[in-house]
């Protein structure tokens, strides 16, 4: 007995058409895709005309386990992913201990098999403990199942160490995923350096702290032949640099978060006592930077959307702005935010946005997901494009409450998520 999804509308990622479709799932695979599939003998769910999309992939998530289970666990983080329509997430290694050994890569896979609500693909650290002092055994990390290497949370400051990491990663065909931050330029900044930080008297992080490191790493990638993937791009110069790298035919790819596409540094000005729920790294920058990120997403310079889902406890986020930790949660609201703000306003077509959540990350990281077709793994998300709901923490599956989008009314929520043939979220 399989599962039949009846009366859905499958989004054609080439033409953007929504076509009346039934889907039969057997085991973890898509068995049939047709206008009409006989439901007898199978469990059936009536989709009532809702949109059928490939399950989303998010290549930048902090699941916080092991070590920071008060913020999030693999169980709660992947439940949040499922609610957001995600079927695959890549988790960052800045846990405690840092995921810098084959054993810890194995721990992520084993814990996900027991407690996870989506596929979890771990990154391994570039340097031991993310301390920037000594390289990890990158070949062993890959053999254990790491899908890339990164010291996300901090930038690799040493150029010679990054060069050596890229040489090794290139020989292994493993992506080098960079959190670009020059610590000497960023110093103890807590928001974007600019007119708002000056007005508020807060130390700023210049956009340059990001873009100079991207420039360095593009040069190192060209020399070594490594695949460089730029995390959470936030600055106009950074977008230009990635565009330049692509024009040279380099293996350079990039992601952008919903918050860098939708917000400007003015959010900090507007809130009382500079609410730390507005604090994130890289910081929210200017309207010019936001426009550059959006243009980069539209013209293909930026390949994909990633959330940088970064939960913290309420207690941590209640600290004063300067000492509270950086980060927003994002998994549960990423797609509806961008659907509402970019698709409904006519800035991007639905199928073009969906590609940034599905086939693009799958292709960049060579993951066998992101396409609905017979024989493929049954990873699907069913989205209601009509119903509007308010973002409330009461409905969150994540332990995090830290988002600047609370109270926002948005459309495009997932109502059913299926990962490897298994229902991982069902809403209304
Ligand atoms: Zn980062």
Which key features would you list for this structure?
2 domains; 4-stranded parallel beta sheet; 32% helix; 8-stranded mixed beta sheet; 428 residues; TIM Barrel; Urease, subunit C, domain 1; alpha/beta; binds zinc ion; globular
Summarize the structure.
The chain has 428 residues and is an alpha/beta fold. Helices cover 32% and strands 21% of the residues.
Using only C-alpha atoms, the radius of gyration works out to 21 Å
Biggest β-sheet description = 8 strands, mixed
List unreliable stretches of 5+ residues: none
Shape field:
globular
Alpha plus pi helix count:
15
Description:
The chain is of the alpha/beta class. It folds into two domains: about 5-50 and about 375-425, Urease, subunit C, domain 1 (Roll), CATH 2.30.40; about 55-365, Metal-dependent hydrolases (TIM Barrel). Helices cover about 30% and strands about 20% of the residues. Helix 2 runs parallel beside helix 3, helix 4 packs across helix 7 and helix 7 (about 210-225) runs parallel beside helix 8 (about 235-245). The mean pLDDT is about 95. Zinc ion binds near residues 153 and 232.
